[in-house]
Amino acid sequence: MTITITAFERSPDGGKGLARDTRVRWALEEAGQPYEVRLVSFAAMKEPAHRALHPFGQIPTYEEGDLVLFETGSIVFHIAERHAGLLPADANARARAITWLFAALNTVEPPILDLSTARIQEHDQPWYAARLPLVQDRVRARLSPLASRLGDADWLDGTFSAGDLMMVSVLLRLRSSGILNDYPNLADYVARGEARPAYQRAFDAQLAVNTGQPPTG
Description:
This protein has 2 domains: 3-85 and 198-211, Glutaredoxin (3-Layer(aba) Sandwich), CATH 3.40.30; 91-196, Up-down Bundle (Glutathione S-transferase Yfyf (Class Pi), Chain A, domain 2), CATH 1.20.1050.10. Helices cover 56% and strands 9% of the residues. The longest helix is centred in the middle third of the chain and has 31 residues, at 91-121. The protein has 9 helices and 4 strands. It has helices at 21-31, 42-45, 48-51, 72-82, 91-121, 128-150, 162-171, 184-195, 197-211; strands at residues 3-8, 36-40, 61-64, 67-70.
């Protein structure tokens, strides 16, 4: 069955790989699964047809036959469960990889999103200068133990997994803030994720939508 995902017709980040459809594209590329993309405008995202797929009017969505999914974590988990390449065969290692996927979304990403919101939407508020260090400290409170746990390893638990895919995707949001530079092993970890051919194909495909240029890969 053909897999179809939805993505922004024009991404708010201009194709820098931060839109969440990039995570799904990456997972599908790692799994070697062909897919089609249906581009959705901001207006269409709020229309009944799209809300039937995603009740909150967001992207991405995932359609495969009668199956319709929303929420990036759920979609990536489904791809990893259904296809080889993103979860280890060993049951315990598999469970740990899934744990890291949840940790990326539930523990690490929330303060990072809070920082992004502060920098983009609240920078002109009178309390911004006082609030920003507090938000940055909450991000560092997540990055410090993550950096300690990663140490000098390439990936979080042995081989690359869906947990690493999601964690790298989340950490990429910190690049413009400069905070990631304070954690060299995490910066290197993100760079390793970006260097994977599957990520590069996903990034190029998402960038092509926003630039009007065909993917290079």
